[in-house]
């Protein structure tokens, strides 16, 4: 046992472990560092959608494959590098952002239907004023399960409506 590194602290440090001063035989795990979240601007969302549109033939059944998401992440890293307060746009974060944009698309599509009772404008959203606040509150709270994703569009539009629509499987493909 004299030639072994069982008692050596050097091998523990080389594996990212720190010596526990209270018990040298049980090292402390390395401190956890948390990755910064990816924060998306409207411009970056547009770049994501444009890139996906240029790779639409790779969507197959309406879903993009892992290779496309990896290429999307590389494209975003090259053209929109993260700032000091912004995390990397990984393949997973690009896919999550696209899913969120699709949710917004469907919420706005519902608002655009005459049945919702709201006027909708792509720039100003549902244009809620004092006259229809109660109806809006009912729409997003009481009808919450069906229309919870409409909440951000009270008085703000969804600039990516047409871009997302072009990426949906039911739009002009197949």
TrEMBL record:
Biased composition (Polar residues): 1-11
Region (Disordered): 1-37
InterPro entries: Myb_DNA-bind_4, SANT/Myb
Origin superkingdom: Eukaryota
Pfam family, one: Myb_DNA-bind_4
Domain Myb-like stretches: 32-102
Coiled-coil stretches: none
Protein name in the entry: Myb-like domain-containing protein
